[in-house]
Amino acid sequence: MDSIRKQLKLLQRKQENIRNICILAHVDHGKTTLSDSLLASNGIISNKLAGKVRYLDSRDDEIERGITMKSSGVSLLFRTLSQNSATKETLPPQATTDYLINLIDSPGHVDFASEVSTASRLCDGCLGVCTQTHTNVRPILVINKIDRLITQLKMSTHEAYSHMSMILGDVNAIVGTFHNENLIADEPEKLARAVDDWILEDRDDEHLYFSPEKGNVVFASAIDGWAFHLCIQLNVKEESLMKVLWGDWYLDPKTKRAVGPKGLKGRPLKPFFVQFILDNLWAVYDSIIPRDLKAKDPKPVLQTVMNQWLPLSATILQATVEVLPSPIEAQRVRIPNLLNTLPPLSLTANTQEGQGFTPEEEAMIQCNASSPHTIAYVSKMFAVPADVIASSLKSAAGGVAGSTSDRVQLSSEDAREQRRLAMVAERAARRKAELEGSVGPSGVQIQQQENANDAPVAISAATKAEEVPEDETLIGFARCYSGTVKVGQTLHVLGPKYHPSKPDLYRTEVVISKLYMLMGRDAGGNMFGIGGLDGHVLKSGTLASSTQVRSFGGVSGDAPILRVALEPYNPSEMNKLVEGLQLLNQADPCVEVVLQETGEHVIITAGALHLEAWIHQILFQKLTLTFAKIEIQVSEPIVPFRETISIYPAIVAQDKSASTLPTGTIVASSQGNLATIRIRAVPIPKSVLAFLDSNSRRLKAMTDADQLGAENETARADFIAELTAQFEEAKKEGTLVEKELWEDIGSRILSFGPKEIGPNLLISSSPSITNAWKDNFGAAKTRGRKESNLPIASEGTDDGGDDGTDEPKLLRAVTAKDYEGSIAIGFQLAMLTGPLCNEPMMGVAIFLESFELNVEGADNRQIGLLPGQIMATMRESCRQAFLKWSPRLALAMYSCDLQAPSDVLGKVYAVLNKRRGRIISEEIKDGTPFFQIKSMLPVIESFGFSDDIRKRTAGTASPQLIFSGFEVLDLDPFWVPTTQEELEDLGEKADRENVAKKYMEGVRKRKGLFIEKKIVEHAEKQRTLKQK
After folding, report:
1. Which domains does the chain have, with CATH numbers?
2. CA distance 473 to 530
């Protein structure tokens, strides 16, 4: 082990020989099977178990389901023969080059997209293509499962070549689309001018596309253990053969020259790729796999032959070394692109506007390990059992992998047994050390600062036993971009919202006490672990030695949508639950832990599978046993709804006295009639609603008035201008309700809601309220918190009443402006809890038509209570105005993509219809019998959907669910049949279920609200106890 550590230490100094890569692909694309073959090349597992043991899937639910749920990684050592860089001739055998490959295996399911974002943020290259994550890393395309073309689809070599060519063309088309989107985003002014020269301008994008002759395409079968990429090993000029080995090039048997399609002249010649590669591959399968299905399983023989002929691990690692960049090369490209997406720095003497970088940023671009500017990025926090850390050095199958000759090949059972025995022995040694006060091995830690200057990460095996936590250790998954991280060093922890112009906000300091080389089932290299960050880093953050560094921001992912409420079985253990949830909140970037207004502790996850993984694996095992150390009760999954209004009036019978008021108008007075409010609720057009919903993050950034100071004024003005343009478009389209209400809308907006960032508007139509949102943003919130700046003298001063009493005295007459904060807060409360089922509202504009005060004769204490009364009156008025229109529920929706053969389409549609799904499109994939189906599915109907559709289709269809937003259910929850036609169709009993009412009552029942429901329905007989 000492020799391995020394070899690893030497490799860490050679940054040009390091490759940080991850595997990105969808579910069931063979990522973990591919990782097994790479692990077998380093002797971590047996070659016979590669593809079967799924070594990096260490969780019980991962093994049970057969899918990856958490990112895990390993450091691999790859040795290759050195070549002359000029002639590419192989040097003598003793001239070898060692490479350190840091590999991360990431999940493929969309519910775990945050894990994919974490892996791609830390890596410089990737294997495979994952369309759910658009990242700026250089990829190698791995076309896996080619064996299925031979054994299952029974394709000929020419059909297989056409199929793979089509796949390659589709992938390049997607890459080209992303490239064009980036060009348009980078140069929007040229697009606005629509310069023809710019549209037709040639861009050098050749390096973006996949082509086998470039070496960035690998053809593989991970389950059979073989792979190849176009690498010439013949006595032929490499450049000449590489040009014709892929594509429509054919070998003329007469002239022995390559000809194109025009040179065929009707002859049935095969392309080079088919004749020299696929024909040989198909011949091996045909000779080994017998056609008689009753024969002995030929797989072991096939895997042995193919692994010796075309070894998968050597091909993948060789392509990684040749195609993917080292950290030095990658950061020269990635870091400037990353910095351009961050908020700009204030101009200093070292920077010029639009060009140049600070010294700290230059150090990152150059990947300078000797720079005094230390900068690292923590992508996520995760918990590791202390005994796993303590036993990592003694684990026979763990640690940093050496070459095959340095390690004994172990079976999966032997490896796990040795790890178990090592963990038991380490626990006993630690207990003995604690009793005797001695020091023993308990982790993999960085040496002290005086010995840490040799390399960015230098490992040592000794630390004090009492420094190791008893159960869990929170470790930050980090990558160092410049400088050297040392034990004892003081670094600034910059939060995602940090900006150098406000160095005192979102910044803390931490002393690096522990550094870990994450090995075996995490990651290694210049990706390392930092202990002691709990309390400083929530989920992600930037570590820097200077405050003049821009924060890299958080890891982005889909917004969490599913939630469950937690409570302890023993109410006295609530404090332990809160502490455990704080740790849990740090363990997953896509999990949110919130305390709702009802007092419930809720965790929010990305999807049904994500939620199930946390409930069954984390909650019942980790959270129960280690994080909180208590027993926890979990509620049924909670799905959010939204409440909105349609353009039609309410169905309920209208009062004649109220018929003179326009629809949605309410006039209400506070207690004692001291204040009178008249408001009107009006639906917001769909186009404006979509604009507000898509810009919620932008609104949230502007809500933080301390973030960029005065720069918010320009941002607010720009946003109002864009919003006004959206209203003008809606006016032209004729979707506005009563166009005269929306005149000069930009200068009359008082607030957005709920939480000042939602898709609802408070608009002033009263001359007494003129404080617009764009002019004095945040003032209403401040006034509301102070219960409005009323001119009342404080108690204990000399400004008491004239009659000698202690009553506070008004210093001046109150006006409507003193209660703007109370009105705004009442609006926010109303938008947060709608009248249907206390869910947030969306698409509602509240016009404040008048606000009058009548405080003559009121004593000062009544006026002091008036702000709270105005809040309550405004809240209730908004809810009543909402009900004047026909209300609607908006459902959270999933976008569902799945592939299915034509013979099971009927079953797929039956499952979707049963769950109230809607088909968007269906297209047949060229050259295959599969249909690509896109549909929309309510989240509340999605529980068990994946299992149901797999059962109905015998596993031939597997859906991918991605949250796409909220969609209005066009059905009034209060609707009942009234007309003769409706009664004839549905009957007096309304036998057809009102789905909107069912959803509304389900939420009301969960929240403990009143439900108007009969105990006995449709009773026809009555039992009597009277005896004859």
Report:
1. 1-84+94-191+207-233+296-328 (3.40.50.300), 329-339+360-386+471-544 (2.40.30.10), 562-638 (3.30.70.870), 642-777+817-887 (3.30.230.10), 976-1027 (no CATH)
2. 10
